[in-house]
Specification:
The protein has helices spanning 23-30, 75-78, 85-92, 102-113, 121-128, 138-157, and strands spanning 2-8, 11-17, 49-52, 55-58, 71-73. With 162 residues, the protein is of the alpha+beta class. It has a 5-stranded mixed β-sheet with strand order 2-1-5-3-4. A hairpin with a 2-residue loop joins strand 1 and strand 2.
């Protein structure tokens, strides 16, 4: 056991853990951040995607020791009210069926939308290619992302921030 300190959703966390423990387990089991899902356990499906220092990261295959001193953002930290533009777009497009992969999907694309510029459909599809949805809602996922991109562009045109 070692002390591992990192920031999770803006809160400094100091834990006595095995540094090899997967970050996903720490988030879910020790910090009760249940939005991060574990499906494949080897970083292939994307259900466990969180941001580490702003980059999408597979929490199931990331040892917690590797996030020492870093910032981790989960779906719970994306919006305190669940009203992030992506979350609104997800609801408007009725994306989830089972919903299991959706927090990972949203966290994956949130990193793309945090960057400057306006991604087109091809850039969106490429960025999301490694996140799997067993229900096959890929069309709705892309439409929701396009909706959020349009909302952001509209807000920028009006001089508003999202």
């Amino acid at each position: 056991m070692e002390t591992v300190e990192f920031v999770a959703n803006g809160v400094l966390r100091r834990l006595e853990v095995d540094p090899a423990m997967p970050l996903a387990w720490v988030l879910r089991d020790l910090l009760d951040l249940q939005g991060t899902k574990v499906s494949c356990g080897v970083g292939m499906c994307g259900a466990c995607t969180v941001h580490v220092d702003g980059e999408p990261t597979r929490a199931c295959s990331t040892p917690v020791g590797s996030v020492r001193g870093r910032h981790v953002l989960t779906i719970e930290g994306l919006s305190a009210t669940g009203d992030h533009p992506l979350q609104r777009a997800w609801r408007a497009e009725q994306v989830p069926q089972c919903g299991f992969c959706q927090s990972g999907q949203i966290m994956q694309v949130a990193a793309l939308l945090a960057r400057p510029g306006t991604p087109d459909r091809a850039a969106i599809v490429e960025h999301m290619a490694d996140n799997l949805c067993r229900c096959g809602t890929y069309g709705r996922i892309v439409r929701a992302i396009e909706r959020a991109v349009a909302e952001r562009a509209n807000a920028e045109t009006k001089g508003e921030a999202l």
